[in-house]
Design brief:
This protein is mainly alpha-helical. Helices cover 72% and strands 0% of the residues. The chain has one domain. Helix 3 runs antiparallel to helix 4. The longest helix has 28 residues.
């Protein structure tokens, strides 16, 4: 699920254009993408540290995406706020994908928490 939520959000950024978001947002998204791929791969391989990384990745993604997209601009170079300008090419699809990534990130964290409890 998290891979789908993250992937849809990536598609939204591609549709909006690579210059629609500040450079730091795009760089952060690329770093986050690597972490997401690693966390999902570890979970699929049932590695012992996978639950910890799932919790960190899921909660971290939800917090960072909430800051980046759902809060008003505090630091414009570090945010791509959908609430306050410039809102370059933000559509209903942008909102759906941002919310889906936040939601599936929290579900991924919950799955990691459950796996951790089961293993204990």
């Amino acid at each position: 699920m998290f891979l789908l939520g993250w992937g849809l959000h990536v598609i939204d950024h591609l549709l909006r254009g690579m210059t629609a978001s500040p450079m730091f947002v795009m760089a952060g998204g690329m770093i986050q993408g690597v972490i997401v791929i690693v966390a999902i791969t570890m979970a699929l391989r049932a590695q012992s540290r996978a639950p910890d990384l799932a919790i960190l990745t899921g909660v971290g993604s939800a917090v960072v995406f909430t800051y980046a997209h759902l809060l008003p601009n505090f630091w414009p170079n570090f945010q791509d706020s959908y609430l306050t300008g410039p809102r370059v090419n933000v559509t209903w699809f942008s909102w759906v994908t941002a919310l889906s990534e936040i939601g599936t990130g929290l579900l991924f964290a919950y799955a990691g928490l459950r796996a951790k409890r089961t293993a204990a």
